[in-house]
Amino acid sequence: MSIRPILIHPDPRLKKLCAPIATVDAEVRKLADDMLATMYDAPGVGLAGPQVGILSRIFVMDCVKDHDAAADPVVMLNPEITWTSDETNVYEEGCLSIPDQYAEVTRPKEVRMRWLGLDGQLHEEQYDGLWATCAQHELDHLNGKLFIDYLGPLKRQMITRKMEKLKRGLARDKGNA
Q1: Cα 121 to Cα 112: distance, rounded to the nearest angstrom
Q2: Which domain holds residue 155?
Q3: Would 130 be classed as within a structural domain?
Q4: What is the helix (H) or strand (E) element at residue 100, kind and residue range?
């Protein structure tokens, strides 16, 4: 397993529609392992293919917050939402591609997801709370959408400017290294 660099917004790859994964092979399994390692290292609760420069329909998540509890990693290939609740939840969302920026986003409280697993089988499960929010957030990534796209234009522009400044600083630091 290796830690992959996480793309920082704005990056055009974060706004692209991702292609379906045709077959579950060693390359896809390695990608999933790398993405889980990257997500845990960041640390985060979810990570989507485009965030590591892979424009394929894959995301990983693990919303277990209790450090004493066992990890519960989920890898979803070609995920889709098959049902959403009418009831909504508001979560303060963040994103590994938009570091240190958070905003409240309203989403369905519960979702039912269907996806292809690393075992090559179709899986379906219902999620609620943080798991439901995370699944929706990561699925948005596969469709070229970021959590800041749910915000008003001024707040979105302010966050984008902060990220541009961060990227300039990172590039400058890299040049001085």
Answers
A1: 17
A2: 12-176
A3: yes
A4: strand 98-108
Q: What is the mean pLDDT of the chain?
A: 96
* Cα–Cα nearest to 137, from 127, 147, 125, 128: 147
Catalytic residue selected from 27, 104, 138, 164: 138
Residue 134 covered by a domain: yes
- Whole-model pTM? 0.95
CATH number at residue 56: 3.90.45.10
Span 10-25, pLDDT tens digits: 999 999 999 999 999 9
Find, among 49, 19, 55, the residue nearest to 34 by Cα.
49
Establish whether 124 is a catalytic residue.
Answer: no
Residue 6 lies in a domain: no
Domain count, the chain: 1
